[in-house]
Amino acid sequence: MTTQLTLIQIDNYGPWTITPEPRREMDLQTMQSRLFADLAQFIGSRGGYVFFSRFDNMIAVTNGIGRAGHKALQESVRNRYPVTVSLGIGTAETPAAALDEATEQIQAAGSAQDEGRTEVLAGEPLGADADATTHIAHFDVNDATGKYTDQLNEFDSFIHIERSYASLMEYMREAHGALSFFVGGDNIIAVCPDLSAADYRDAINHVERDVGVELKVGVGRGTTAHDAGYAAKHALEDCRYEGTIVEFDHPQATTGDD
């Protein structure tokens, strides 16, 4: 399996936010949120996923989207916003390695704050004959409403959720080259290589030991992020129904660890 990731970077964004003078913060937040929403609609309609990351740099799973689709995305942003975006495409067996490649493609073209570097499109999408199977893991917090939302104020609830995200994000990145993203509520979506049930249980156990938050996860696979993510949602519902912490949308090979 090979993951295709696209790094989306707003061109020369830092200097733009203060030229000719500092712009109102809520105007910037509005533009960033609208841009993310448009990217999510564009990429999502083509079977991909995009995550807001730091907003000026966003990460997309773009298996099945070719160079023409990437060019159309750049044109859409240019026509609708006062900024442009550069895109770096990377492919590798692990999402982290794919992101490294995508990042290097953009960095080789110049600094993120180089006013002469605009609308870079670098890197090659997967070929038609490549194994483009994508694995998506959808985590959520066990009984987040009962433990946090209905018991604590919103900021303290947010602290607990963010601690679980930070713990899981770092563990999955270091242990497996997976990339995990907070997507709202108590939900975390991870783009993963092909991992076993034992691997996911180890990650969940790590988070509970580290920050005291209990998670469960549904895992799906597909040729696009949408297909894999939708399958993961169904697997997560199986966790809720069965009272388990790890479920897959597809049968797993039995090993001595499982």
UniProtKB/TrEMBL annotation:
Keywords: GTP-binding, Hydrolase, Nucleotide-binding. HAMAP family: GTP_cyclohydro_3. Its EC number is 3.5.4.29. It catalyses: GTP + 3 H2O = 2-amino-5-formylamino-6-(5-phospho-D-ribosylamino)pyrimidin-4(3H)-one + 2 phosphate + 2 H(+). The keyword Magnesium does not apply. It comes from Halonotius roseus. Catalyzes the formation of 2-amino-5-formylamino-6-ribofuranosylamino-4(3H)-pyrimidinone ribonucleotide monophosphate and inorganic phosphate from GTP. Also has an independent pyrophosphate phosphohydrolase activity. The keyword Nucleotide-binding applies. This is GTP cyclohydrolase III.
